[in-house]
Every structure is written in C-alpha cells, then in structure tokens.
Design brief:
Residues 1-136 form the EAL domain. This is EAL domain-containing protein. It comes from Vreelandella olivaria. It holds the Pfam family EAL. It is a single chain. It is built from 8 helices and 4 strands. The longest helix has 21 residues, at 8-28. With 136 residues, it is an alpha/beta fold. The protein has a single domain (2-132), classed as TIM Barrel, CATH 3.20.20.
C-alpha cells in the first residue's frame, strides 16, 4: 500500500533511521548486533539512498557491517540498470547485500552475477520439488 500511494520512500527513510538509532543504542550498551532490512523496488532505484545511508552510518557511528540490505529478485529486475547503480553504491559503502526470494521471477544467474551481491536467498518454491521434476 505504501508503494502504491508513493509513501514508501518516506517510510523506508523512517525505518532505516530507526534501525540505525537502535543499533547505536545497542552498541552503547555493549551489544554489537547486526540487522538486515528489506528494501522495496522504489528504494532500490532511489539515487539518493546510498547518500542517505552513508549519513546515517556516520551520524550513529556505525560500521557498515552492522547493516545488511535485502532486496527481492523482482525489485532488482524492474529496472536492472538503476538497481545496479544503487547496489554498487551501497556495496562501496561496505554494506552486505542479499537478493531475497530468488527463483520467483524471471532473472537468470547471469543477470544476478553482474550485481554486487554477497548472498543469494533461494525461494523454497524454487527447490521444493526439484527432485521430482522431469528434465527436458
């Protein structure tokens, strides 16, 4: 609903700021945890996302290792070039990047291989009945 109404960017910025604030609070208490956050398709093509995240990491004195970014395969495939640009910038910040729900869309491993991805999370529907499928 937030994506359809055009509010997703505002919601994502609020969520990222609150996650970073919480990570900072935990860090101050001696807990060095990391958090993975899911980004929407709109976030992945936001040209200001990396700048915003860099400012949050600096403001809260967080190591990029404390924050992982997850995007769905379908979000990346909506605009591969824009997503590639954003993901490259996030990768250059030192953030870990995961592609979530791989196998639910139409991308190929060749396309995914071009992206700066640390982790590929294969959707269970992709492998659930793999041993019973006929080879053609």
């Amino acid at each position: 609903m937030a994506e359809r109404s055009g509010s997703i960017g505002m919601l994502s910025h609020w969520m990222l700021a609150n996650v970073c604030a919480q990570l900072h609070a935990w860090q101050q208490r001696g807990y060095h945890l990391s958090v993975a956050v899911n980004l929407s398709a709109s976030d992945v093509v936001d040209r200001q996302l990396a700048t915003y995240l860099a400012s949050l990491l600096e403001r809260y004195r967080l190591s990029p290792a404390r924050l992982s970014i997850e995007v769905t395969e379908s979000a990346v495939m909506q605009d591969v070039d824009a997503a590639m640009s954003t993901l490259m910038e996030l990768n250059q910040l030192g953030l870990r990047i995961a592609i979530d729900d791989y196998g639910t869309g139409y991308s190929s491993l060749a396309q995914i291989k071009r992206l700066p991805v640390d982790e590929l999370k294969i959707d269970k529907s992709f492998v659930l009945a793999i041993d019973s499928q006929k080879m053609t």
